[in-house]
Amino acid sequence: MDSRDWMPVDLARYTGITLAQVTRVLKGEQSPGNKFLLAVAQALEIPQTTVFHIAGVLTDQEIEDVREDEAARKVRRLLDALEPEERERAIRLLEQYVRDHRRVAPKARPARGEA
Asked: How many domains does the chain have?
C-alpha cells in the first residue's frame, strides 16, 4: 500500500471489502480470511502466495509446495494440449532435458596445502 501511496479507503475500494473490515485487519483487530487475502493480492497485482506469506498464513515450505503444484499443473496443461504421439515426444524431450541439466552437487575442493 505504501508504494502505491494508498490509504485504507483505497484498499477497500479496489478490493470491494468494506472500509471497516479493512481497518480492523490493518489494526490487527481481525485476522484476514482467504477471501480478503485473495482480494488484496488481486488489487495490488502481486502473487497470492506473497500475500498469504506476509499474513503469516503460509510457511516458506508451503509456498514452495504451492509453486511446485503450479508448475505441475502448467506441465499437465501443456501435455493435455498435445495429441498422444506428440505428448510422448514431449515427455521424452523433457526427460532428456532433465538428464542433461540435472543439478550435480559440486565436488568438495581440497583445502589449501592438501592434495
From this structure: 2
